[in-house]
Design a protein that fits this description.
Blueprint lengths: L1 H27 L3 H8 L2 E5 L2 E2 L3 E3 L5 E2 L1 H14 L5 E5 L5 H6 L5 E2 L7 H4 L2 E3 L4 E10 L13 E5 L3 H9 L4 E5 L2 H9 L5 E5 H10 L3 E14 L2 E3 L3 H17 L1 H9 L1 H4 L4 H4 L4
Parallel strand pairs: 1-5, 1-6, 9-10, 9-11
Antiparallel strand pairs: 2-3, 3-4, 6-13, 7-13, 8-11, 8-12
Length: about 280
């Protein structure tokens, strides 16, 4: 009798161990692709105030380069470009939106850094970027010109991290949203604004009283889509999708439709990260 009881307890223990191991494995290697197909819509985090990459146009629709790519992803994955739900994010919230599952992936001009790569998984990069600094009439031409001045940045951006680490003596004025930051520059609440140089070139074109005095600062980085850490199946699909865009000409098409009016057709290879 005692032997039978012992065997029964052992059996329960073994089953519990295997079940537990199975659940643990599932948590490590999440199949986000299957989940997207099951719900029939892909949720993608984009910016609402960063033209020409991600913004809301005059019709109240999501628009821009990142959005153009996102709709094609929905078409390839779910057969319909409209089967995408855009979740508006701010720079500082991108990682949290992925970790919490609010979005399936991020297409919000996300610069890949070693620190971010520890908490999210980046796919194949598709754009190049460096930091730049814009000011009234482009008077700030060197970092030394910022001594005793106020520099506007967005919280959680590469610019925020770069100046905090390398130039802690420079006073930073931080904002959550791009619209707030650029309005502060126009209002004179800061002497200059640091951000991705591609964004600054586009903004300065629309605001001729300002110019990008520092066109490239620090290392050139890459921009890439990102998924939740460990979401390997979705990451592999995303890598294949970016490769497909490069091979079939869709990446170039997206550039022509959304970025060429700002940067010109001849700047494609200096903007896009085409392998």
């Amino acid at each position: 009798m005692k032997n039978l009881i012992f065997k029964a307890i052992l059996a329960v223990f073994v089953v519990g161990v295997f079940v537990g191991c199975g659940n643990n494995t599932q948590g490590v290697s999440e199949d986000g692709l299957a989940a997207i197909k099951q719900k029939g819509v892909i949720t993608i985090g984009v910016f609402s105030d960063k033209p020409p990459f991600g913004f809301v146009n005059d019709k109240g629709e999501n628009d821009g380069f990142d959005v153009y790519l996102a709709r094609e992803m929905a078409k390839d994955l779910l057969g319909d470009a409209s089967k995408v739900k855009f979740e508006l994010v701010e720079a500082a919230s991108r990682v949290e939106f992925l970790k919490s599952g609010k979005v399936d992936l991020i297409m919000a001009n996300f610069t890949k850094t070693p620190e971010r790569a520890e908490v999210v998984d980046f796919a194949t990069p598709y754009m190049k970027v460096a930091l730049g600094v814009v000011s009234k009439e482009g008077v700030i031409k060197d970092v030394a010109d910022l001594k005793g001045k106020k520099l506007i940045v967005n919280k959680g951006t590469t610019a925020d991290f770069y100046f905090t680490k390398n130039y802690p003596e420079i006073e930073l004025v931080k904002f959550d949203q791009n619209t707030e930051a650029f309005l502060a520059l126009k209002d004179g609440r800061g002497d200059a604004l640091a951000h991705d140089n591609l964004l600054l070139f586009a903004w300065a074109k629309e605001n001729p009283d300002f110019a990008v005095g520092i066109g490239k600062l620090g290392d050139e980085d890459v921009i890439a889509p990102a998924v939740k850490k460990g979401n390997k199946v979705l990451l592999e699909w995303l890598n294949a999708e970016i490769e497909k865009f490069n091979e079939n000409g869709f990446m170039q098409e997206a550039y022509t439709k959304t970025l060429a009016p700002i940067y010109g057709e001849d700047q494609l290879e200096s903007v896009l990260f085409v392998k």
